[in-house]
Each structure stands twice: as C-alpha cells, then as structure tokens.
Amino acid sequence: MANERNIFYILIFISAIISVMPLVVAVFKLKYIRGVLLPIFLLTLSSLLTEGITKYLITPGQNNLELYHIYTIIEFILISLFYILFFRKYFNSILISLLIPVFFLAAYIDYKLNGLKSMDNFSTSLESIIFIFYSISFFYYALKNLIFENLLSTPLFWLNTAILIYFSGNLILFVFSNYMAQTDPVKYGILWAVIHTFFNVLYNVLLSVGFWKAKNR
Which residues, including other chains, have CB under 8 Å from residue 13's CB and lie 6 or more apart? Predict the structure, then answer.
C-alpha cells in the first residue's frame, strides 16, 4: 500500500512539473501569442493557477473538487474559443457557439446530481466528446482543403493534436470516474495517476511544441 501511494505521489509530481512547460515556452514566445493562440495560452495560465491553489493553498485532505468544476467550465470556454477563432476564417462556426449552452446545461445537471464534492464526470465526458469532434473536424478540413503549406510547421497542428490525444485518451476515465472512486478509491487514485499523468504529460509536451512554432504561422 505504501509503495502504491508513493507511485501515486511521484506521478502526480511529474504531471505537475510538466504542466509548467507550455507556459514557460509561451512566455518565451509571448510576442507571437495572439489571435487563435491566445485562448490556449490563457488555458495554460488557468491550469497552473488551479494546480497552485489546490496543492499549496488548500488544507491537506480537504476536498477541493469544486475548484476543478470551475476549471472545467473555464477550460471548455477557452478551447471552444480556440476552435471558433480558427473555423470562422473558413465558414460559419455557429455549431460551436450552439454547443456552449448544451455544455452549460450538462454542467448544471452534473451539479444537481453530483454536487461539488465529487468528480464532474458528466461535464468532463461531454466536454471530451465535443473536443474530439472539433479536433477531428480540424484535421478533416485542414487536410481536405490544404489550408496549410506545411501542416507540421503550424502551431495549430500541435495544439489540436494535444487536445485530441488528451481528451480521447482520458474519455473512459472521465466517464467512469465517480463509479470507480466510490468502488475502490485507492486503486482509482492510482489508475487516475497513471492514465491521466501519461496523457497530461503528452498533452503539455505537444502544447509546448505548438507554442514554440508560433513564429511560423
């Protein structure tokens, strides 16, 4: 049990350290962070602020899941804005705007059913499905219409890939989070640390690459 807990804390620490990387790179490239890149930059700030509050300002052992409920809403708004700013250059992005109130309805239902002291699995699951749809649509449109001369050189490719991998990789974990937490919280914590840490590290590395290539837009 002690070894399992040690692994859990080590993975959480690795995830937290890697989460700083995109912000460091973005600050280094700050003069190029504008337009469609700005929402993702603000997302990295929000993520680190949330992590900082939960890890350093909350009493150990205290349930701080209400902060993640708030972060999920901020995350959804900023990533949706990222896709709105991208797609509006090529066609009417009204569908994305219409899905925003749908998400807020799901967040409200989540709050009424689960409260603020449990995982917001309804919100995060719907959010993941929506972002998977957005990211696949991005690739389909970009490849079909050849809107980039060199897809790998554009920061949007790396940011979109990060979003696709993170939310598709964690979808099952988000869907069953409350069930697993209630069934076996210790094993769930370790499972969360392993799966979420892997995809979170990959997510932040890809975001960092995206910000690094900001000059090449």
Answer: none
